[in-house]
Design a protein that fits this description.
alpha+beta; Calcium-transporting ATPase, cytoplasmic transduction domain A; Rossmann fold; 8-stranded mixed beta sheet; 6-stranded antiparallel beta sheet; elongated
């Protein structure tokens, strides 16, 4: 997941490769913002220093050799060789001791063989190019780790706790179960809890995938990372600040990366049978020299076999090609965090889609208006917008955006979690949910809009229902054609979403997706992707934090970029994750 799962351009990832020493151990998620260091710019990155030093020494050696300073040139080339080799030889040796062969061992054999043949400059060039290619590829893959750490930034650093001595401000990591928290309007929920007092609406789309704000009141659950709406809430914590639904999402992602990190890259898979074969052939060549009575000549030929059989070109070209591809793709809005994603992407046969912010824009829009006799659609929208213009609720924003010629309102009062009322000219207007304002003779229309997956807003004018407005997170314009194209090429598709069944099925039908799995929590999505990937290679396409475990578990994860979950960026930017 990325700033992927949380923001920034979109990305395609796959499992982290096991370059030298195996995957990083799974860490227990720490508190918010802990361990959130970011990669330095490339000119300050210490991981690139050995490659730079080796390159400078190699160039210096070539220059000294041309000017006739053979001794100094040899010294510079040896320094380049030792510095460059130090980045991959120790790891290759450690893997060999654990019985694991990789391309690093082949490069080590090639460098040693070149030195024994007297070609130090060639060995130094090999060490420099391979160390630089590996460092650049590792740097590219570090983007995924940054995105993972960024997940925890969705939790605030501090929270307001009601204690025996009044209201105190504590670090989120100090919150304990049953603590009473005050969540002000616009604040993020610090940990999982249950509303004890107050009414409001919460935006949990980035955590649960719910496309529309959720109305909450006493007894309702609120997840960590959700954004509170207009009303203040008193919440009783049901989880510690260090162990809540958001930190568990991070743990799921880390576990998926650790499992997938054990898969070898293409170069390592080739190296596994090739290394022993090359060693056996070289040994046979040397033994043949002993048999025929000319050992030194045939030992030299055995070294030539070692150097020639090592896939140096592949070992160097693959990472360099990946970096070139990353640079080209970034110009098109695609951020690729692992070259192995290219290898796996061609094997995909099943594509799983999230709904909110992926198939849809991620922001509510007015989809339908039904007006009563004596009213028009335009007047219903205008009356509702006159009140909603003072509200920060996402549904209010959608109504205001759809209305034209909005009149002025006064005496506006908002009942958190229910609706808003006020006076527009000589008329008393109420706008709210069907739980607060009875749709009366427009009930059938309201139910039809609800069946179509819309949030229904009732507009009442002087005690009589003037109309109902259907608000929904609409399908992206290219979604249906994309699904049709996938089906035409033989791909299976399905929808995995945390949204409710009715809304999910309505939008899936429009997109042309028949397999719909709604109401799925992050763990449920990850488990579904695990089962699908075991049957056939599967790509997961999502955008929110709730998709992060599934994205990490899939054969290839495609994270919709940046503000895709909020609908502010309409372009389709992707990340390829391994």
């Amino acid at each position: 997941m990325s700033d992927e799962c949380c923001g920034g351009p979109a990305v395609v990832t796959q499992a982290q490769d096991d370059a030298c020493c195996g995957p990083d151990p799974v860490r227990t998620p720490q508190g918010p913002h802990e361990g959130s260091e970011r990669r330095p710019p490339w000119w300050k990155d210490p991981a690139l220093v050995p490659s730079f030093v080796a390159g400078l020494c190699l160039l210096g050696g070539y220059a000294l050799d041309v000017t006739g300073h053979a001794t100094a040139a040899g010294a510079a080339q040896w320094i380049a060789l030792l510095v460059g080799a130090s980045t991959f030889v120790p790891g290759a040796v450690r893997r060999l001791l654990r019985g694991r062969l990789g391309v690093g061992l082949l490069m080590t054999i090639a460098a040693v063989g070149a030195v024994l043949l007297g070609h130090v400059a060639e060995a130094a060039a090999l060490a420099f190019l391979f160390s630089l290619a590996e460092a650049l590829e590792d740097r590219a893959m570090d983007r995924a780790k940054e995105g993972l750490r960024a997940l925890l930034s969705l939790v605030p650093e501090t929270a307001h706790v009601v204690g025996a001595h009044g209201l105190t401000t504590v670090r989120v990591t100090e919150i304990r179960e049953r603590d009473r928290l005050i969540i002000a309007a616009g604040e993020r929920v610090a940990t999982d809890g249950v509303v004890a007092e107050g009414r409001s609406s919460i935006d949990a789309s980035v955590v649960t995938g719910e496309s529309m704000p959720l109305e909450v009141g006493p007894g309702d659950h609120v997840p960590a990372g959700a954004v509170n709406g207009p009303g203040a809430l008193r919440v009783e914590a049901t989880a510690d600040g260090r162990d809540n639904s958001l930190t568990r999402i991070v743990a799921l992602v880390e576990q998926a990366h650790a499992r997938k990190g054990r898969r070898a890259r293409l170069a390592d898979r080739i190296a596994r049978p090739l290394v022993p074969a090359v060693l056996v052939v070289a040994a046979l060549v040397a033994v043949f020299g002993v048999v025929v009575g000319d050992p030194w000549t045939w030992i030299e030929r055995a070294l030539v076999v070692l150097v020639a059989a090592s896939p140096c070109a592949m070992a160097i070209a693959v990472p360099v090609t990946v970096i070139s591809a990353i640079g080209s793709a970034s110009k098109l809005g695609v951020v690729i965090t692992s070259g192995a994603a290219f290898e796996q992407f061609g094997t995909i046969r099943t594509v799983a889609f999230d709904k909110t912010g992926t198939l849809t824009y991620g922001s509510p829009q007015v989809s339908a208006v039904r007006s009563a006799a004596g009213s028009t659609d335009e007047s219903v929208l205008a009356m509702a917008a006159a009140l909603e213009v003072s509200s920060a609720h996402p549904v209010a924003s959608a109504i205001c955006a759809a209305a034209q010629g909005v009149p002025a309102a006064c005496d506006v009062r908002e009942d958190a979690g229910l609706g808003i009322s006020g006076r527009v000219g000589e008329h008393l207007v109420r706008v709210g949910s069907t739980r607060w304002v009875d749709p009366a003779y427009l009930r059938e229309d309201a139910e039809a809009l609800a069946e179509a997956g819309m949030t229904v807003v009732v507009v009442e004018l002087d005690g009589d229902v003037a109309g109902v407005i259907g608000v929904r997170d609409e399908l992206r314009g290219e979604a249906a054609s994309t699904v049709r194209m996938l089906h035409a090429h033989g791909f299976d598709t399905l929808m995995l979403t945390g949204d409710d069944e009715r809304t999910a099925r309505a939008l899936a039908a429009e997109a042309g997706i028949e397999d719909v799995r709604a109401g799925r929590l992050p763990r449920d999505k990850a488990e579904a992707i695990t089962r699908l990937s075991a049957e056939r290679p599967t790509a997961m396409i999502g955008d929110g934090v709730n998709d992060a475990p599934a994205l990490a578990t899939a054969t290839v994860g495609v994270a919709m970029g940046g503000d895709g979950d909020r609908g502010r960026r309409r372009s389709c930017r992707h990340r390829l994750h391994r």
